[in-house]
Amino acid sequence: MKQVRLLHNPSAGDEEHDKEHLIKMIEEQGYVCSYSSTKKKGWKDFENGLEVLAIAGGDGTVRKVVKALLERKMHQKIWPIGLLPLGTANNIGKTLNLEERSTEELIASWNNCNTKKFDVGMLYELEDASFFLESFGFGIFPYLMREIKKLEIRESSTPEEAIKEALKLLHNIILSYEPRQCKLKIDDADYSGIYIMAEIMNTQSIGPNLHLAPVADPGDGAFEIVLIAEKDKEKFANFVFDRLNGKDVAYDYSTIKAKEVTISWDGTHVHVDDEVIKIEKDVEVKVEMKEGLLEFLV
Fold first, then answer.
1. Which domains does the chain have, with CATH numbers?
2. What Å distances lie between residue 44 and 8, 75, 216, 218, 268, CA to CA?
């Protein structure tokens, strides 16, 4: 029988996605399932003979597990990941079109062994982070993430309510944010300018489900670079306002495909996925694509 290791964030999802229910659903599909909570010690000890590494949680849990995998020796196996998206935003799950199916349907689909390659963005000259899965960027998003941590959202809030609160906050930030100078080289072409946001994206959406790169393919070996210039500040604020009011439309602008980026920003904070990192002003960060490093069951 196939062996599955379930790595679970017990604070994600509802009572139907607790430890017992998840193990039962997996074993009903003919797997032998071992379990670890990502909140407890020992979850990084991966046994031999695994065929699927299941992750039940949100984007932050996926990043936590991938970080542990990448810290192992590079010749060691990285197993196909069966993602059960149980978080608030689930930008990775949405990009992989996993949210259209129930947890039971996702687990049942693992037997088909259909996989999707997933690229990883590698970061250089940044002391506190070495990779990203969703996006890396400067400007309004690091500011948003810092403010979200200060925002008290009720534990009883639904993911939809939490996202709405984040969008309200983002809209206010856009209106008050002062554009900054950005030195930017994209595949040897100079795109330096004054922006309110510069995002190097691997997934289609970031943060509170903002679809900034609707055609992004995390397995195509290229980033989607999203630049919001000073002149487009009002247009972007209107886009967020529409999203806040239930209009789920893509932002109308062009993205730039790239494999390698060098960037520095007139500011001291950057975000790597959902983490905010303080850096020295004008530090030049190099970003490279590591193609097909991960594999997700789809």
1. 3-113 (3.40.50.10330), 122-292 (2.60.200.40)
2. 12, 17, 30, 25, 32
